[in-house]
User: Fold these one by one.
Assistant:
Number 1:
Amino acid sequence: MKIAIATENGFVSGHFGKCEQFTVFETEDKLIKGKALLDTSTHGHALLPSFLLSNGIEAVIAGGMGEGAKQNLDSLGIRIVSGARGNVDEVVKQFLDGTLRVNEEGCHSGGQHGGHRCNCHGH
């Protein structure tokens, strides 16, 4: 499975559509087989789901994600995990072993969610 984590300085980015890179983990049988950075700075956020699919991504993890992005990813069969926080290496390990805790609210607008900031600063 190829997992893409929206990344900012080694941590899960607060907003799927605004991140400039994804850390891509290639996994097999819950083990990490490879890790690479995927630059998205030349793609508009509306094109990200198709771009990720074309790179073989099967799951996306982000700190926050708008409903449009969720719908687009879902329609392409890409698994979505929104509301994650922390170091990308730790987050992918937690995802693989089933212990990843997320804020289910995700990102809707303004960057304020239940007392924390997702750093999305609106859409």
Number 2:
Amino acid sequence: MKVHCIVPVISILATNIIQPAHAANGGALLKGEWSPLAKLSETLANVPGCAAKLLTDRTGNINKLIKLKLQANLYLETNKSNATHKNWFPITEAIAAEISDLASNLQQKKTGAIKVVTTTEFLRGHIAKFFNVALEAWGTNNVGCITTATGGSAAGAVVKQLTDPQSGIPATALAGLAEGHAELTGISGEGFTGLKTDNGISNNGLSDNANCVLFKGGSNGVTSTNPIASTLYFAGGYFGRSNTAATPTPADATDFTPNGAGSRSNNLKLYKAAYDEITTILPGSKF
């Protein structure tokens, strides 16, 4: 009789004492989720400098051509033989045509550069705000909303600052317009390399409980007593939080081809706009 009572007693104790992981109830965002976004922000921060350099290079080319044309004209003036004129006149005309073409398109290129910078900076602003808020929502290395852990417990790995270049350091400072030579990395012929999440801010994208209510969509979360009415989006639409903790909110910004996943997602329209603009200043483009 005593033997038969042991099993139900153990079951009751296990149910009440051994608690499951509570990623839905205050987990911190895992490294695998935020890292690609942090890296993208670093790339976007280099866009203004790259655009400024392209404009400067274009102006420099015009000035060089003007100097060459003046030298050619001077040579023609000092060497007025028919042979010299026959050989050099087509060259000076070609230089003049190139100067005219570059100069006539300069204002158009300036407008294009402004559009590239404003579009990418608008997106980076959304990303920066997300990281600023999420990282500031921190109490100790056990309590907060961003963790460098890759799964399970975030104990000792909840952070208020990201410092590892390999994982990505969010670029949250104001844009610098000084000319830059930094390579625009993480951009493929289809989209942003690696910028994809299958989880979003759902159970599988969060650590065990780190007492973060910023990402809680259920009751006792951001709306206190009731669940949120619809999916809450962060970082310009890349991250989503459903009112059901286990529901994933996937996003794929790796494919902005006409029928690609990113192009079909209305939540990623800011990312598509930024991608479309940034590709106009990549090496090999006709900027």
Number 3:
Amino acid sequence: MKFWNDWGHEVLELARNAARDNKKNRIVPRHIQLAVRNDKELSKLLGSVTIANEGVLPNIHQTLLPKRVGKGKGDIGSASQEF
């Protein structure tokens, strides 16, 4: 029974961290999903489990993402517009 207590504690701790990263005070099913999917061991253990109201994690192939040209924040406003 100790295994399940440790497992539950680990999931809640990771979900709390995910909620904090998203600047939220409450843990919602989405945070539990993020915690499980981003942890290698938990993902292996709970990979086929469906969590209600969780949504989906975005999985965008690297070739479809825009290429990063700039190296910092200074490049954000440097583009000029022509009319």
Number 4:
Amino acid sequence: MSISRGSSRSSSHSSSSSSSSSRRRKSSSSSSSSSRNSSINSSCRISNSSSSGRSNSSSRTVLAVEPVVVAVVKVVVVVVVVVVVVVVVVVVVVVVVVVVIVIVIVIILIVVVVVVVVVVVVVLVVVVTMVVVIVGLAAIAL
């Protein structure tokens, strides 16, 4: 009987030691898991803060790029307006020059026609006068 008591004591001792060792394992595993969780949480916080920093920097980049885009658009609009104005001015000048040239040509033609008509009239008057004079002289001579 004493043997069985001793063996039951040793078995209870061994079971208590195994349960305490399993408790130690559980506590160590829980502490390691809690340390793992805290490290994961801290890394998540770091990654969140870095991603928020990235989003802040990207918003800063967008804010920094926006005036440049506005300036480029303004320059392009000014260049387009200047080109359109220059083209319109050139077209107007060309049209005015062509109209002036046509008017000058028409005036020259009118002057030439008037001069030709005057010359023809003068020649006709001279010829008619000469014919009349010749006919008169011939009549007197006869």
